[in-house]
């Protein structure tokens, strides 16, 4: 069923992400959809949740006030999100383009070699991946941190990890680019991405319709198997390079 409310006090995408995160943590909430311009908030839930329970979720942030907009209405199907109204290609076009550019540029580098060197290509690919993805996160660092805290197992407990994570990716990108201690670089990547994928898997398996923070707060990408593939690819490449070096 879907209940409609109004939330006041939100002034930016970071506020919106924070409210979505807080409301999504309430037991029984499946998804939260908010129109920032009006404050209209639609909450899909698998059981009836009293309004005071939802208001209590925002108690530590008194500037956000939730009130009933209209009587709760049960719907046959969950609310359609904006991304559901677009084709799969339109929805994931930004991340596909990013991967395409990184793959294309790193493959072109290999054309200057007499033969294709897989280890070198993977090193360049991961450098490009982390540098580009950290760039989008740092563009709106607070927005990314708020979105990331909605599903990451560490950021849920410590909001500051979202801010730190963007610079961890930047550091890894520089490390791969400069060839800094490959064993340490790949080991850190394996650990960081393995921790990251846990929250992604939980969200996808629970069918939670929340925003993916992989490209920061710049693009409105839904959490999906694409995000799992992205993290798994980094885990696989880092593990393979570690094995090759040992």
Structure description:
With 246 residues, this protein is of the alpha+beta class. The chain has two domains: 2-68, 2-Layer Sandwich (Alpha-Beta Plaits); 82-245, no CATH class. The protein has eight helices and six strands; from the N terminus they run βαββαβαααααββα. Strands 2-3-1-4 form a four-stranded antiparallel sheet, with helices on one face. The protein has a two-stranded antiparallel sheet with strand order 5-6. A hairpin with a 5-residue loop joins β2 and β3. α4 runs antiparallel to α6. The longest helix has 24 residues, at 182-205. The chain is elongated.
Per-chain topology:
Elements: E1 2-8, H1 13-24, E2 29-34, E3 40-45, H2 51-57, E4 65-68, H3 88-110, H4 118-139, H5 141-148, H6 160-178, H7 182-205, E5 211-212, E6 221-222, H8 225-245
Antiparallel strand pairs: 1-3, 1-4, 2-3, 5-6
Helix pairs in contact: 1-5, 3-4, 4-6, 5-6, 7-8
Q: Give the fraction of residues assigned to helices.
A: 55-70%
| Shape, principal axes of CA atoms | elongated
Question: How many extended strands?
Answer: 6
* Count of helix runs: 8
Straight-line distance between termini: 54 Å
Question: Main sheet, how many strands, which sense, barrel?
Answer: 4 strands, antiparallel
- Mean of the pLDDT scores? 85
Order of helices and strands: EHEEHEHHHHHEEH
Structural class of the helices, strands and pairings?
A: alpha+beta
What is the count of distinct domains? 2
């Amino acid at each position: 069923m879907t209940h409609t409310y109004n939330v006041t006090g939100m002034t930016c995408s970071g506020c919106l992400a924070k409210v979505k995160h807080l409301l999504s943590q309430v037991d029984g909430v499946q998804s939260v959809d908010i129109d920032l311009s009006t404050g209209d908030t639609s909450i899909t839930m698998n059981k009836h949740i009293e309004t005071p329970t939802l208001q209590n979720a925002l108690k530590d942030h008194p500037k956000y006030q939730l009130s009933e907009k209209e009587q709760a209405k049960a719907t046959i199907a969950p609310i359609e999100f904006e991304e559901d109204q677009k084709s799969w290609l339109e929805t994931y076009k930004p991340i596909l383009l990013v991967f395409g550019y990184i793959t294309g540029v790193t493959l072109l580098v290999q054309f200057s070699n007499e033969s294709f060197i897989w280890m070198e290509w993977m090193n360049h690919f991961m450098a490009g991946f982390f540098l580009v993805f950290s760039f989008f996160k740092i563009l709106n660092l607070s927005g990314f941190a708020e979105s990331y805290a909605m599903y990451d197992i560490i950021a849920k407990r410590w909001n500051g990890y979202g801010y730190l994570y963007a610079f961890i990716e930047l550091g890894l990108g520089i490390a791969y680019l400069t060839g800094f201690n490959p064993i340490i670089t790949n080991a850190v990547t394996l650990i960081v991405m393995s921790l990251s994928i846990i929250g992604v898997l939980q969200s996808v398996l629970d069918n939670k319709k929340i925003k993916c923070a992989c490209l920061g707060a710049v693009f409105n990408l839904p959490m999906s198997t694409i995000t799992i593939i992205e993290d798994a690819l980094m885990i696989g490449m880092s593990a393979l390079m570690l094995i090759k070096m040992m």
